Amino acid sequence: MGFMKYKIHQMLSHETKQRLSPHVTSVLILMKSANSVAELRRLVQRQYGIDQPNLFDGWDIK
């Protein structure tokens, strides 16, 4: 996989970044709390009432 010319965050407006910041912080806290991807999925499900089964597909996470 080659390097992307731009990072996705570079394409977001300042207002969008401000609006997403609390959500990103919340997800990062959940990530730090989880001991596995399965546990993170359970935490996301509990916090947001949704499951995102494709969120980590293709990631080599141990």
Query: For the report, how would you describe the main beta sheet?
Result: none
List unreliable stretches of 5+ residues.
none
Mean pLDDT: 78
* SSE series: HH
Beta-strand segment tally: 0
- Rounded radius of gyration (Å): 14 Å
Please count the helical segments: 2
Write structural notes for this entry.
Helix content is 52%, strand content 0%. The mean pLDDT is 78. The chain has two helices and no strands. Helix 1 packs across helix 2. By secondary structure, it is mainly α. It is globular, with a radius of gyration of 14 Å.
Short description:
This protein is an all-alpha fold and 62 residues long.
Task: Sum up the structure in keywords.
62 residues; mainly alpha; globular
How would the blueprint of this fold be written?
Elements: H1 14-33, H2 37-48
Helix pairs in contact: 1-2
